[in-house]
């Protein structure tokens, strides 16, 4: 369906928000399909970032440039209008665009080449559709977490998101456009079209338009969702009167698609509606594609089949039928996988073609949740209301990460690693609790953001915008929990950080962190002196408790916020006194102390949590003890701010300050026994499959044999079940009453989980101690 | 012929071994075998030509009536047809000599057929009637209620395989039952060639009735259903009825023969302006079946004949594609296409022949049998006579 130009002129463009940051666009690519156009552009965005002065602990906000790719998907009817809009808004960067080429792909690309050239004054290169698609597919599978999913319609949580696949290749890519192309992908540059079928989306649309009143794809799907194919298809039971039991073919199985239409003229089979025809058509085509894909996968020994193309478009009925067909024909041995950004693959591929000189493929990219529309169920509801105009502009944004991210080498089994402890998409109670929780906390978060920028007049306004944006996102997630992949506490926190960044609140806690750090540094000598006065065992207990006490301070937790706002003098000792008395909720302190009697660890990797008392009075003394035992320490912190977590930039300064106060730390730093590193993360939680490549290399080089995870975010919300090939400590104070209750404890309950390394291949820990409905003490508690 | 959309998961891996049919014994006349499919009912009738005067005297009137009715007509009622060109003459069966007749009518006419059986006093002759196909189950009660006949229900795949071997080993009036197409794409050079089917194992059977069943046959009694598809003859005719308003298979085929599918389908060149060289696709390849039909002007320009042709080509190519992959997966080179979809349908046969040839670089061979859709009914007849088809000596 091509754009009807007269119609296009009468359409006004949606608000600015659609083509964000267009003025800074540096490069364009387009995927022009039959009914949808996808525009990709690269821009640099200004991000304010809190910088630490290297000599004194002083913070300034500076703007830095970050690379971003924007993708916008819209109906072809808007195409010409959008080109005009782009032209008008490109004035500022037009000089920079001169001589650059727009990469275009998709069935409609040759038809519109001239129009693009005329409107934008830029040359337009056509890129091969399949190649773009394949490159786009590889790109999203490599860069976007929870990109692929299985669809299980009758499960309470139909979307089963996949973790990033370390063994991506080989796979089968089935692209269902007008026809079907089946491509075997063996590596980034080795792929082959092994087959295809002419029965595809075009057949559905073509036959559908011929046999029903529907005029387009959506109307046809709408009809299909209301129909009953059994009035049109000849089922096994229509032939046998029941099942064909000798072959085990159930009576409901379709024996002959459209088989009942043969006798329709006799007046016998007249009881069908055009809805039934549409449904049968959808079934017939999805089934056929599923079967053919399955045969190709089996012939080539492939296990994973990714489906893409406009025929799918996230439609539940289509995904269900294809999944069903794959299961049926492969007896469950093959996996039908769908992609959240399926519609963008061609545009991504075309963009990558044009960006080869920028080495886009060498960088890691991350989905910007704040700027992406997410996956909505596009199935038209029974009372079909056309979507409003802005909703038909779908957006997807990617931020370039500064460093490549890879898996932590100490993970026992990277393919089975799943960072999050509770998948909120699978747990309605937990989902409701946390969504409410984030909604309630929003005002406080906004207030803090405003308070962090006292000299900025527009802070209040931006905070309002931030609130509106995040509230809307929470609303979306209540309706479509699967919109951005697995919904987890981590994803809610990260989205909030990204929304804050979006409105230029780079680090709302910067001043609080600074105050706390300074206060803590003042107490440090006294603390170290106290520790040194203790006997070995008492000292180890005090160090463990110190790690936990520091963890009581966490501006992310409501309880503490209240506590701290009410009482300025609330200090380390008080924090200690708040801790649950032993035995703790999970109490592995004794085995840990026993372990410390033994040979020292080779290298400990510590992921730090909060600024202030936590890092300075909890973590540094612990690291110091390790160093004194002859253990090397890698101390790492977030690469970018998140809540009051210490950042890598801050940690570098703090390490120097601590070194001034403590000769052990000074020597350890100068001799390299203690190394401060960036984790690659910008989150209060931690995804160990996405850590900075340099950190990963350092871990390997030093032979990390102890991983210490500290805090609710890193040790409870994520990684509680993470299995390591080496020893690990997971420490946290449960500052959330609901979560504590769920785990069978109360607020300020302590988790001190020590696990010896496991070498058993493929062994995954049970998931029954967290995330179940029944509060249950973990086995460690009974000790 | 009843065919089914899918294979049974549990059956996989294990090959179904069928017991041989029983030893010789002679049932009373008349000898029928029936296969009641989703769309068509197929009836084979063995007419003994060696009736002795004694026998003739003892013969009941109703038996004579039936023989006369079936053998002296070529059409029965509105829709029943005897395929006289398929009749097998002087066929030895169970120690008798006779002619084998092939009759078909739409399954919708089953009730009329049963009433006729009642009128002709069928039930007085013998009490069992061998039938296969889904209809044997669906109409079992009707057989008893209307015609007073007790059905002996038989498995349709058993019957199909036995039927194929019996007919082929019997020779078709002295000529070859099995054939293939030489130069299927060249109108001027295309030739029907006899194929020696004496040592066929292993082979694939693609039975195209309303739906499609695909079997792998390893020996006389060792075979399994490996796949199938619901896009079969019923889909072709059903869609043609909807798209063109035609009534019969013959009309649909006739229209298809005069149509041009490229007015309906979207070809590779329609998208890429020519060949899609990057992936070695010729511009003439169909990219999307019916892919032009969402465009109003093209929709209006497409004739009924074009639509019928496109439907035929789409269904045939899809079957060819699935059959080919099954053959490759099973590593079997001979693919035998049977079923009534191929009746009066050289377009499909040649497409299938070409599809096997082209996509496998000549490695696979598409084979066809003259008695297309009647093998199930023949298999049912054999069960009646309790004659194992394999007791008949095969010329080595």
UniProtKB/TrEMBL annotation, chain A:
Residues 448-746 form the Damage-control phosphatase ARMT1-like metal-binding domain. It comes from the Eukaryota. Keywords: ATP-binding, Coenzyme A biosynthesis, Hydrolase, Manganese, Metal-binding, Nickel, Nitration, Nucleotide-binding. GO terms for molecular function: ATP binding; hydrolase activity; metal ion binding. It catalyses: (R)-4'-phospho-S-sulfopantetheine + H2O = (R)-S-sulfopantetheine + phosphate. Its cofactor is Mn(2+); Ni(2+). One of its GO terms (biological process) is coenzyme A biosynthetic process. Coiled coil: none annotated. InterPro entries: ARMT-1-like_metal-bd_sf, ARMT1-like_metal-bd, At2g17340_3_helix_bundle, ATPase_NBD, Type_II_PanK. Transmembrane segments: none annotated. Residues 767-776 have a biased composition (Polar residues). NCBIfam families: panK_eukar. Phosphatase which shows a preference for 4'-phosphopantetheine and its oxidatively damaged forms (sulfonate or S-sulfonate), providing strong indirect evidence that the phosphatase activity pre-empts damage in the coenzyme A (CoA) pathway. Hydrolyzing excess 4'-phosphopantetheine could constitute a directed overflow mechanism to prevent its oxidation to the S-sulfonate, sulfonate, or other forms. Hydrolyzing 4'-phosphopantetheine sulfonate or S-sulfonate would forestall their conversion to inactive forms of CoA and acyl carrier protein. Homodimer. Interacts with PKM. This is 4'-phosphopantetheine phosphatase. It comes from Branchiostoma floridae (Florida lancelet). The gene is LOC118427308.
TrEMBL record, chain B:
It catalyses: (R)-pantothenate + ATP = (R)-4'-phosphopantothenate + ADP + H(+). It is found in: Cytoplasm. The keyword ATP-binding applies. Pathway: Cofactor biosynthesis; coenzyme A biosynthesis; CoA from (R)-pantothenate: step 1/5. Its EC number is 2.7.1.33. NCBIfam families: panK_eukar. Catalyzes the phosphorylation of pantothenate to generate 4'-phosphopantothenate in the first and rate-determining step of coenzyme A (CoA) synthesis. Homodimer. This is Pantothenate kinase 3. It comes from Branchiostoma floridae (Florida lancelet). The gene is LOC118414442.
């Amino acid at each position: 369906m091509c754009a009807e130009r007269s119609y296009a002129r009468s359409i006004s463009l949606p608000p600015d928000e659609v083509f964000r940051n267009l003025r800074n666009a540096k490069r364009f690519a387009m995927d022009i399909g039959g009914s949808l156009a996808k525009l990709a552009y690269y821009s640099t965005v200004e991000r304010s970032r809190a910088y630490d002065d290297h000599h004194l602990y002083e913070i300034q906000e500076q703007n830095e440039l970050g690379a971003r790719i924007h993708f916008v998907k819209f109906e072809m009817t808007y195409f010409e209008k959008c080109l005009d809009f782009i032209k008008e808004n490109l004035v500022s960067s037009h000089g920079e665009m001169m001589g650059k080429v727009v990469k275009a792909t998709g069935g409609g690309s040759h038809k519109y080449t001239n129009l693009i050239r005329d409107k934008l004054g830029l040359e337009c290169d056509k890129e091969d559709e399949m190649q773009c698609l394949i490159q786009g597919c590889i790109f999203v599978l490599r860069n976007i977490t929870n990109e692929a999913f299985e669809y299980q319609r009758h499960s309470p949580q139909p979307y089963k998101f996949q973790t990033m696949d370390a063994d991506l290749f080989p796979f089968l890519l089935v692209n269902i456009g007008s026809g079907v192309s089946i491509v075997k992908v063996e590596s980034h540059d080795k792929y082959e079209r092994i087959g295809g079928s002419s029965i595809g989306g075009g057949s559905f649309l073509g036959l559908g338009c011929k046999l029903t009143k529907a005029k387009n794809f959506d109307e046809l799907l709408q009809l299909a969702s209301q129909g009953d194919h059994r009035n049109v298809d000849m089922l096994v039971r229509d032939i046998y009167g029941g099942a064909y039991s000798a072959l085990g073919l159930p009576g409901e199985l379709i024996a002959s698609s459209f088989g009942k239409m043969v006798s329709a003229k006799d007046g016998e089979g007249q009881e069908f509606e055009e809805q039934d025809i549409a449904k049968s058509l959808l079934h017939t085509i999805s089934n056929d594609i599923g079967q053919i894909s399955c045969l190709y996968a089996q012939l080539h020994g492939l296990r994973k089949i990714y489906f893409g193309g406009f025929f799918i478009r996230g439609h539940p009925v289509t995904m269900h039928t294809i999944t069903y067909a794959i299961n049926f024909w492969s007896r469950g041995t093959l996996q039908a996988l769908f992609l959240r950004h399926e519609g963008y693959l061609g545009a991504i591929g075309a963009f990558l073609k044009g960006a080869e000189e920028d080495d886009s493929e060498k960088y890691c990219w991350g989905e910007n949740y704040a700027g992406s529309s997410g996956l909505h169920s596009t199935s038209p509801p029974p009372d079909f209301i056309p979507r409003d105009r802005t909703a038909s502009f779908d957006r997807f944004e990617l931020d370039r990460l500064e460093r490549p991210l890879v898996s932590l080498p100490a993970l026992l089994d990277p393919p089975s690693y799943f960072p999050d402890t509770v998948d909120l998409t699978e747990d309605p109670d937990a989902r409701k609790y946390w969504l409410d929780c984030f909604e309630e906390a929003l005002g406080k978060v906004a207030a803090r953001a405003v308070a962090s920028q006292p000299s900025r007049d527009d802070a209040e306004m931006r905070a309002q915008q931030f609130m509106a944006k995040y509230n809307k996102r929470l609303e979306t997630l209540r309706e479509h929990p699967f919109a951005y992949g697995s919904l987890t506490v981590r994803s809610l926190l990260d989205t909030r950080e990204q929304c804050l960044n979006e409105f230029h609140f780079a680090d709302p806690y910067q001043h609080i962190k600074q105050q706390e750090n300074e206060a803590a540094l003042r107490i440090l000598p006294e603390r170290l002196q106290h520790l040194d006065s203790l006997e070995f065992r008492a000292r180890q207990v005090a160090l463990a408790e110190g790690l936990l006490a520091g963890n009581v301070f966490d501006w992310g937790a409501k309880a503490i916020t209240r506590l701290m706002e009410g009482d300025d003098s609330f200090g380390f000792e008080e924090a200690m006194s708040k801790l649950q008395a032993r035995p703790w909720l999970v109490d592995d302190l004794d085995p840990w102390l026993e372990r410390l009697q033994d040979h020292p660890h080779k290298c400990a990797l510590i992921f730090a949590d909060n600024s202030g008392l936590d890092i300075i009075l909890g973590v540094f003394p612990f690291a110091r003890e390790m160093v004194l035992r002859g253990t090397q320490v890698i101390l790492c912190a977030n690469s970018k701010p998140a809540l009051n977590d210490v950042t890598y930039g801050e940690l570098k300064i703090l390490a120097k300050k601590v070194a001034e106060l403590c000769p052990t730390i000074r020597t350890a730093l100068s001799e390299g026994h203690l190394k401060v590193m960036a984790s690659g993360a910008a989150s209060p939680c931690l995804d160990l499959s996405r850590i900075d490549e340099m950190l990963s290399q350092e871990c390997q080089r030093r032979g990390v044999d102890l991983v210490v995870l500290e805090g609710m975010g890193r040790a409870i919300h994520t990684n509680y079940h993470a299995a390591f090939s080496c020893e690990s400590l997971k420490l946290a104070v449960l500052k959330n009453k609901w979560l504590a209750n769920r785990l069978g404890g109360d607020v300020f309950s302590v988790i001190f989980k020590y696990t010896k390394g496991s070498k058993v291949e493929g062994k995954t820990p049970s998931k029954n101690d967290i995330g179940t409905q029944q509060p249950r003490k973990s086995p460690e508690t009974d000790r | 012929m009843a065919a089914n959309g899918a294979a049974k998961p549990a059956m996989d891996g294990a090959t179904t071994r069928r017991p041989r049919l029983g030893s010789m014994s002679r049932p009373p006349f008349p000898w029928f075998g029936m296969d009641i499919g989703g769309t068509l009912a197929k009836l084979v009738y063995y007419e003994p030509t060696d009736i002795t005067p004694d026998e003739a005297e003892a013969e009941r009137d109703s038996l004579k009536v039936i023989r006369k009715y079936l053998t002296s007509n070529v059409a029965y009622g509105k829709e029943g047809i005897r395929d006289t060109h398929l009749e097998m003459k002087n066929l030895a069966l169970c120690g008798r000599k006779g002619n084998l007749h092939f009759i078909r009518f739409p399954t919708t006419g089953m009730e009329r057929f049963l009433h006729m059986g009642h009128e002709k006093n069928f039930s007085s002759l013998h009490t069992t009637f061998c039938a296969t196909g889904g209809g044997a189950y669906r109409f079992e009660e009707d057989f008893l209620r209307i015609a007073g006949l007790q059905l002996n229900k038989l498995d349709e795949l058993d019957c199909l395989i036995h039927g194929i071997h019996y007919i082929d080993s019997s020779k078709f009036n002295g000529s070859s039952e099995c054939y293939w197409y030489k130069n299927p794409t060249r109108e001027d050079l295309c030739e029907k060639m006899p194929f020696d089917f004496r040592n066929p194992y292993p082979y694939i059977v693609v039975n195209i009735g309303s739906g499609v069943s695909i079997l792998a046959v390893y020996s006389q009694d060792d075979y399994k259903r490996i796949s199938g598809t619901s896009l079969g003859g019923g889909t072709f005719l059903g869609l043609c009825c909807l798209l063109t308003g035609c009534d019969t298979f013959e009309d649909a085929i006739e229209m298809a023969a005069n149509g041009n599918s490229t007015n309906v389908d979207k070809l590779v060149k329609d998208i890429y302006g020519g060949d899609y060289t990057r992936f070695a696709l010729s511009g003439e390849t169909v990219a999307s079946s019916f892919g032009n039909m969402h465009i109003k002007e093209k929709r209006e320009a497409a004739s009924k004949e074009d639509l019928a042709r496109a439907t035929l080509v789409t269904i045939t190519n899809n079957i060819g594609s699935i059959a080919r992959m099954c053959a490759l997966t099973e590593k079997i080179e001979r693919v035998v296409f049977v079923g009534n979809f191929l009746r009066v349908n050289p377009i499909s046969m040649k497409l299938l022949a070409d599809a096997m040839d082209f996509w496998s670089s000549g490695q696979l061979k598409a084979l066809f049998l003259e008695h297309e859709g009647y093998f199930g009914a023949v298999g049912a007849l054999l069960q009646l006579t309790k004659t194992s088809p394999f007791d008949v000596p095969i010329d080595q």
